Amino acid sequence: MRIGLSTAAYYGLLETEDAAARVASLGAPCAEVFLQTPSEYTGQFGALVKEKLGTTQAVSCHSKTQHFETDFIGQSERQRNDALRMFEGFLQAGKATGAPLYVYHGPAHIRGQVPSFSRWQAGIQAAMELSAAYGIRFCWETVSWCWLNEPARVGEFLSLWPDLLFVLDLKQVFELGQEPVAYIHAMGERLRHVHILDYNAEGRHALPGKGMHDFRDVARALREIGYDGDIILEPYFSAFRGDDDALCASVRWLQDTFL
Length: 259
Description:
- Helix content is 39%, strand content 17%.
- By secondary structure, it is α/β, with parallel strands linked by helices.
- α3 packs parallel to α4.
- It is globular.
- The termini are close together.
């Protein structure tokens, strides 16, 4: 297990390749690469990011949801095919970075409606198979405003996609007012990646070590399931205001807590 950083810390403030270079300069052993725009979805751009990361290993790749993710289950064949075509470009970039995992948000949760998830089966399966063809594992992430928003959903999704893997985003679980340990036990060996950020007493994002949670229960639960993936500090800019020293201090705090 390693504690790494996400290039999303500098989303919109730095170009993606410059964000990768900044993460590498902080000595992160591993990184999540957040690709910010469709023009970056090429193998050539992924190779540039890998170069900027240097010895920092890309362990996951992430995209803006609206670029293609919802149209995996689009109503028309053209929507679905176009989504997969754009996704393939994304995967070419992801493969070039060396990242073995793709982080998927899933469609947005609409209050008062619960879709028939079986209608999504073919579209998500096609995306999973395309991802596998590039040597990248498809991982569904907990997101407060999307459909992996309660522990029971894990079993529902595995009944449709038995090869599915998961990402636990702790800040999203806290946003839902839930406890992450239930997700960890539900996901078990299917949990492959963890994103971490905290909240302070005022309900604003805070770096781990400066927020409300000590995360010892999370560390214990991860040990119980034999988790051997990485933990990525995925801060929004508001949580550290460009203070790289604060980021590094939070990483050290996480190392003391989880390693």
